[in-house]
Specification:
single chain, alpha+beta, 11 helices, 16 strands
Length: about 350
């Protein structure tokens, strides 16, 4: 299954002029843009993912961001350790390798579902904690008062790292803006008010979360860098990565290579989206594994004397911690709605984090 690329340019040109009511929006958008919104919703429903082209997010800026993160991850461990924040559940700052336990290792139901998949679609079995590092950088305003301070921590800035804050904020805000447009188009496509999702995202604990995997140490084919899992947040967005290895699963259980075309962004549904749609959209499963294509890219990087750190250009867009997760609009009438009882997004996130072990 190949994900179709959806260009956001035409929608961006009219989005600020649209009314909030579904009945009026269809008339204002016209048939072509209405169809495009339905395509976004359909892709998130059927594939748990959508590939978009956002003219505000350039390939050059993605490359600049990756190059900076390569320099950071190549820094000595002693330099990176002061940015650890285990008391904030690693939701800000650096998470070292071998700290985050993939959900697959501790979730028996997930293991059973994976075993039921056709052999060619089964995930790789991790042997322990993830081998990736991850940096969590807070993007956007946080609420002045919240019951979930550990999920809404301020940004952690590495000492004496030129251009860090400017580069992280510039790319982070553009990625957030892309998820907001997709969230708005999806709401329209689902027949909801256009701000059904985006109104809940305001002051959410959004984080730019680039991973770093040391392929010089862990570049053997078959090595699991990030075990099979779903994301707890609302939408996860990825820019292009210099090394292949991301696998995603669509709704029917088929495994698909998570490649991102040049100039595009890959967006996946998280558990909060599943909650708001009463399971109409299922949280997208994914993993990162060293494949044959990864080893080919490693050889090429060695020949060109480039970094062997695999950096993901990833951002996690969240529903605000104090907002209530529950099926929205007509999704509340779904037979599955009772599986998604009302709960604050912050409480839900804490429950999800407690299900895995993050070693401090």
């Amino acid at each position: 299954m190949e994900l179709k690329v959806i260009d956001l340019k035409a929608y961006l040109a009219v989005m600020d002029k649209l009314d909030g009511e579904p009945s009026k929006i269809t008339e204002q958008l016209g048939p072509e843009l209405t169809r495009l919104c339905k395509e976004v919703a359909s892709s998130l429903r059927e594939a748990g993912a959508v590939v978009v082209r956002d003219p505000r997010c350039s390939e050059e800026e993605n490359e600049k961001f990756i190059e900076m993160m390569e320099r950071y991850y190549e820094s000595p461990v002693e330099y990176k350790r002061p940015q650890e924040r285990p008391d904030f559940h690693y939701q800000v700052g650096i998470t070292p390798e071998k700290v985050e336990v993939p959900r697959f290792l501790v979730d028996e139901k997930m293991q059973e579902k994976a075993k039921a998949l056709p052999k060619e679609s089964q995930p790789a079995t991790p042997v322990g904690s993830d081998l990736k590092w991850r940096y969590m950088w807070s993007v956007g305003p946080r609420p002045s008062k919240t019951r979930f301070k550990e999920l809404n921590g301020g940004p952690v800035i590495p000492e004496s790292f030129p251009g860090w804050t400017e580069t992280m904020n510039s790319w982070g805000y553009k990625m957030i803006a892309a998820t907001e447009v997709v969230a708005e188009m999806a709401a329209i496509g689902f027949g909801l008010p256009k701000d059904a999702f985006t109104s809940l995202m305001k002051q959410g604990p959004h984080v730019l979360g680039p991973t770093g995997s040391d392929l010089q140490s862990y570049g053997q084919e078959g090595t699991v860098l990030a075990g099979y899992h779903y994301d707890t947040n609302f939408l996860t967005i990825h820019g292009r990565c210099r090394f292949p290895g991301l696998n995603i699963w669509v709704k029917n259980g088929q495994k698909v290579e998570g490649s991102v075309p040049e100039g595009c962004l890959l967006i996946q549904t998280g558990k909060e989206m599943e909650y708001l749609t009463a399971g109409d959209c299922i949280a997208g499963m994914h993993e990162v594994v060293v494949t044959e294509k990864t080893t080919e890219a490693i050889k090429q990087a060695l020949e060109q004397n480039r970094s062997l750190w695999r950096v993901s250009s990833t951002l996690f867009a969240h529903i605000a911690s104090e907002a209530v997760l529950k099926p929205l609009g007509h999704f509340a009438e779904s037979p599955l709605a009772s599986n998604y009882p009302p709960i604050s997004a912050g409480e839900f996130t804490n429950q999800e984090l407690s299900a895995i072990s993050l070693k401090g």
